[in-house]
Every structure is written in C-alpha cells, then in structure tokens.
Amino acid sequence: MTSPFDALLPSTERALLHRVAVAQSEGRSPSFVGAVAREGKKVWSGSRSCVDGHAPDADTQYRIGSLTKVFTAVLVLRLRDEGLLDLNDPLEKHLSGTGVGDVTIAQLLGHSGGLAAETPAPWWERTPGTVRPGLADVLGDAPLVHPVGRRHHYSNPGYTLLGSLVEALRGVSWEEALRGEILEPLGLTRTSTQPVAPHAGGWAVHPWADVMLPEPSQDLGLMAPAGQLWSTADDLCRFAGFLARGDERVLSAASVEEMRTPAAPPGAGDWEGGYGLGLQLLRKDGRTLIGHTGSLPGFVACLWVSVEDGVAAVALANATSGPLTSVVAADLVRIVAEAEPRFPEPWRPLPADEVDQELLELTGPWYWGTYAYGLRLGADRSVVLEPLRGAGRRASFRALPGGGWIGLNGYYAGETLRVVRRADGSVSHLDLASFVFTREPYEQGEAVPGGVDEAGWRGL
C-alpha cells in the first residue's frame, strides 16, 4: 500500500512547478527540468520548454558538466577503501611522470593541490579531446599556480589526473570503471559519456536578443573525468540517495560522509561555501547542502542534497548561461523542506544490551572548571557531551572497542574521552584531550590541574 507521505501535497507541487517556470522564463532557457527526491525516492518532477507540446521529462538527458567530478571522486574513494592507495599518497607513487607528483590524492580531490584551473589554450570545453592527447598537453609547462596545499583553487586538470589514476590502478578505462563500479550497481541506466536519445540539444542564447545558436558537443578525451557525463533528473535523484546514505555495493555510508566533510578552507569572502572530497558544500537558508554544479557549452546543471532534511533536488537546463540552476535546486529543496518537514523517528528505549550500570552512572552533570556540561547515552554505547547553558563545545563520541570514546565532530573530533578511576575502582573524573571533567566545579582532590585552593569556595 502506498504511504500517504510518498507523494507531495498539491500546493507543494504547484510551488515547485512555479519555481521551474520562473527559472525557464527569466533564465531564457530553451528548456528546464526540475526534480525532487525525498528519502532517496523521486517524488516530483516538472519542466518547461520554449516549444509547446515538447517539454522534456525526467528521462531526458542533459549534459551535467562538473557533476561528473563526483563520480570520479567515488571511484578514487573505492580504491582507497580497497587498500590500493592512501589519500595522503603523493600522486607520483601511483602515476609517475606528471611533473606534479608531490601533490597528494586528497589535495587533488579537494582542489587544494595548487594546480591551474584550466588547461592551456584552446578552451578544452569547446575543442575535441584529441587536441590534448597526453597529460603533458593537459597540464602545460606551468601546471602549478599556487603553493601546494595552501588554498582551495578549483582545478579541472586535477580531475583529469584522478581519472588517469583510476585507469592506472584498475587497468581499464575510466569509462569502463565508472560503468561497472557505479552506474550499473546503482541502476543509473540513463547516465553515459555520450548522449543517448531522448536528450536535449545544447544552445547559446544571445545576451541582448531572443535568438539562439547551437553549441558544439565535443568528446573531451582525457578531460572526461572532469566533465563528460550526460544524465537525467531520474538518475540524479537516485544518485542523490546514494550521496545521502551510501550503498555497500559502491561506497559505505562512512566513506560517503567523509566525502561530505570539508577538505580545504573556502576562499576569502566565500564563507557560505566549501569543498569536500569531490563534493561542493553550501550553507543556504539555514541548511547545509552537498552536491555539485556543472556546466559545459550549451548546458548548466545542479544537484543539491540536504541530508538532514532527507530532501534532494535536481535542476537541468540547455543554455550556456542564464538559468541559475544552483539557486533553483536550492530553492526546490527549501520549498519541500519547509512545506513538508521531515517526520522524526519515533523515540525508542536503547536495547537492553547497550546499557549497564557503569554507563548509567556516568550520565548527568560534569564540570570543566566552572563550565557545566551534561553527559548522556546514545545508541551503540555512544555518548554526547554538551554544555548545559551558554556557548560551549558540544560533541558526539563513538565507543572504542578497548574502552573510552572517540570524538566525531567539532573541537573534539578525533580526540579521546576516557574514564579515570581511583584505586578502589570508583570514578575520579573524565579526561578529554587533557581537559578534566569532575562531578563538582573545581572538586577537591588530585585530579584538577594546578590544584584547588584548600580554603574552598568563599563569599565576598
């Protein structure tokens, strides 16, 4: 039986279609497709076209440009998870002779390797890949324009290197690895390196007149891992579900979450955005969006996912410039998330085997000096330490097999929380990265660094 929450409300659907209609009209795009997925399933799609009766649908292919980079990054993370490389490895360890071998794989994924943004002329997006038959033709004589690892600088040639890395370690073409390792397992049957009908044609719209010019569609050759793919709104909604939850056939949830973690600081003045390992990060309308934008002559595209809301949106258009697909996709997420917010999971008690008396005795208030914190239990013997009032460092901790916990976020990410006991087995204090948490503020005893005044607390 169909759940009443599988479909959107008519009022929500109207608001979504209105946003797409405005985007197509104001962006002066020959066509525009929008789609929304909720909890990994497409729940709406809509489109507008300049030709009456020929509006595209969610199965119409558009070129997605740099959204291709997300797929390439997934292939690289798969190699890491199989133990074939480490993200901190220099490129030279696996792909020699590039001239930029000191750049690490992680830096290439996060665009902090210092590489140039583009290839040497002519413009690679509008010329055939045969113009650049080798990596030397892609990188040119001066491939580095910034110190390695010092700043985020978007680099298309960097993803050509990652595609060549995949080929070197897999022994097959990038396209073959992509098809066998991502597209087929996830059922992305309408995502391909070449257009497959039905597909949109790419157009340039004159900036000062309502006339159009067809854009050429080139095979990008070595640059394919940076921007070759064609896809549909249907396929990208499926891919969005993977980016939110992972899929053990392709990449674990933990590795996908790693892709969503900022890998390089944003540029000055761009504090609302960032970049993970192959994923763009955006803070908009009070929510965090992950995904990627894309453009090639004749096409613009965007996929945004709000993991917290369980909502994803796709925006595709076939114009070189004009349609603001990034803004529209974010608006589609916002419309659904605000009109039909996600239902929280029902509260349930912890499983009996995850709770024991020693754990329960650790819950409640703790004090770091005079700062009041509360410790509470979570699933799988995890704990959360959070300030009881005012600003403070909140963090979640995962239980370690040998005892103690490891921080998962914020200031304490990667830091160890442990229980320190007295000789008689009673709890003395909690130790977190050398910070001592006691049951009373500045509790008398040996635990507090620097000691506590023997006269104790006093009035004026």
- Using the alpha-carbon principal axes, give the shape: globular
Please state roughly what percent of the residues sit in beta strands, choosing from under 5%, 5-15%, 15-25%, 25-35%, 35-45% or over 45%: 15-25%
Count all strands and give the number: 19
Distance between the termini: 71 Å
The helix fraction, in percent, is 10-25%
Descriptive overview:
- There is one protein chain.
- The protein is α+β, with helices and mostly antiparallel strands.
- The protein has helices at residues 10-26, 68-81, 105-109, 135-139, 156-170, 174-186, 224-227, 233-245, 253-259, 325-339, 357-362, and strands at residues 31-38, 41-49, 62-63, 203-205, 212-214, 230-231, 273-275, 280-284, 287-296, 299-306, 311-317, 364-368, 371-377, 383-387, 395-399, 405-407, 416-421, 427-432, 435-437.
- An eight-stranded antiparallel sheet has the order 12-13-14-15-16-17-18-19. Strands 2-1-11-10-9-8-7 form a seven-stranded antiparallel sheet, with helices on both faces. It has a two-stranded antiparallel sheet with strand order 3-6.
- Strand 15 and strand 16 form a beta hairpin.
- Helix 1 (10-26) runs antiparallel to helix 10 and helix 2 (68-81) packs across helix 6 (174-186).
- The radius of gyration is 26 Å and the shape is globular.
- The mean pLDDT is 95.
Please give a quick description of this structure.
The protein is an alpha+beta fold. 25% of the residues lie in helices and 22% in strands.
State the main characteristics.
single chain; 460 residues; alpha+beta; 8-stranded antiparallel beta sheet; 7-stranded antiparallel beta sheet; 11 helices; 22% strand; globular
